[in-house]
Amino acid sequence: MPIVGFDTNTVNTLRLWEATSPNGFDLQLFNNMDYNRAVERQNSAENISRVLYPNDNGPSGKALRLKQQYFFSSASLQDLVHHFVANYGTNFRKFPELHVIQLNDTHPVVAIPELMRILIDEYGVSWDEAWDIVTKTFAYTNHTILAEALEKWPIEIFQGLLPRIYQIVEEINRRFVDDLRKKYPDDYDRQNRMSIIGNGKVKMAWLAIHACFSVNGVAELHTELLKTQELKDWAELYPAKFNNKTNGITQRRWLLNANPTLAEFITKRIGHGWEKDLTKLKGLEKFADDEESLNELVKIKHANKQVLADFLKHTQNDFLDPDSIFDVQVKRLHEYKRQLLNVLHIMYLYNRLLDDPNYNPPARTFIFGAKAASGYRRAKSIIKLINTVADRVNNDRRVRGKLRVVFIENYCVSIAEKIFPAADVSEQISTAGFEASGTSNMKFMVNGALTLGTLDGANIEIVREAGEENAFVFGLKSDEIIKMEAEHSYNPQECLARNPALNKVVEQLVDGTYDQSRQIFKELHDSLVYGVEGQRPDVYYVLADFGAYCQAHEKVVAAYADQKAWAKKALINIANSGKFSSDRTIEDYVRDIWKVQKVEVKR
Ligand SMILES: *Cc1c(COP(=O)(O)O)cnc(C)c1O
Hints:
This protein is an alpha/beta fold.
């Protein structure tokens, strides 16, 4: 697939692989009317590349997933080695000079033993030389600190499917554990913790960190937490491997293409150039007090809100008022991202509007977009809750014109391109320490939405760039949460006792207010209040942050009342979003990890 750049003279290629069977369809069986068996082999081959697993930060653990990982990794490696051999022959010493393989998460880590296999079994390279080549070639990017997302394959599945690869992993680990014994002779606990094979599992993240010459996180806080918490043992053993590469997004898609009117507003003021160097947006800052610019910015946002409103009227018959605040949380549905905190706050607002005749806030529209992984029941309960609250609120005349809730179906990139330009408020409310980076936070920023968020992931860097006074920061910080975890000092019951309004919304999950059967949201309620299936209650500190979240919303509403001041904050956010271009991210990888020389291709 050709990857055509923007205003360049080069075209890159992306190879995509599809599994088929060389002797798939069995006409003999078909003629004997054994139709299922006739296509069985073909199906089982095609299944390998049929679907991309949709699991987000959760275990998949299925043999087909490992087949898929091996298939894609091996195909790419074979292709790359064939090219090398065709050009340079079978002396592989030059190989690491010419290649870096950047492992994007643990999913392709099986490529490490696969390259060992190709070099040793197919080209007769010695173990030591193959290991030298492999360890100079691979680099690893970690994308999450959630322990359940670091892939660990049961030995039976791994060895059963990939017997030769398993032998190679065993030998890598035998040599590694030998070294560990020499380095930490009395620390058996550490030797066990760091062993690549242990407790009946193959630990893909450990294999990656041991074999790669670079290990990076995707935002400053994330990398720091890797070094001091989750991967502490490894950072002590291999301190020089660890580095940070803060994520980015492309302004060509998320600004130029998705928001043409804002792009034109920018170009009119600072000229072209920002499309290829986003730091040029800094030039917008001198318009921060320019009345005409601020008025135009308000108009552009309003028009984009109208476009989204028209789209949602057409696609799912939802009515949105573009004069209301568009408060948006769009991202995969996961407990750590805390969509539940958002919807509990909406339930609280609804109660308050009904109970307090003196409460007269500006009109608000809360917009959600999210998909849940197929087997993630609690995530689906949260989607059900959002839709149930939306149904109630949107059909209650008493709050009409004050409060609306919209759940956008089928959240995906194409729909995302309509959402970011229309957002006033960017909800980035994950439990501090759990979001590795986030990238929607960056898409919102470059489209002039103000961040309402915790000090988590790249939010920290976003707020640093934009200025704390141009964002709404709230909640526990990651070090506070780490301390509470260590001391087992968090008691959600205390939060409920201290805050009757919070206690009321939590009880409304099970008192018949939203569900007459009182069953649908019981598991959700119990997970917050008691803890279920051996889990602690409120694992993600939703109740602990609720009060601070409500106060942060009060500040949002107060700030929005002054449209000009709000537009100024939006403009300063846009002007300072330059760091979050993926161009900068890629330059960082090029300079620090890949060490690639730039070649200018002349017209
Ligand atoms: C950017 C994007 C994401 C990532 O969102 P986060 O809030 O950073 O998790 C997910 N899905 C789609 C469709 C996106 O465009």
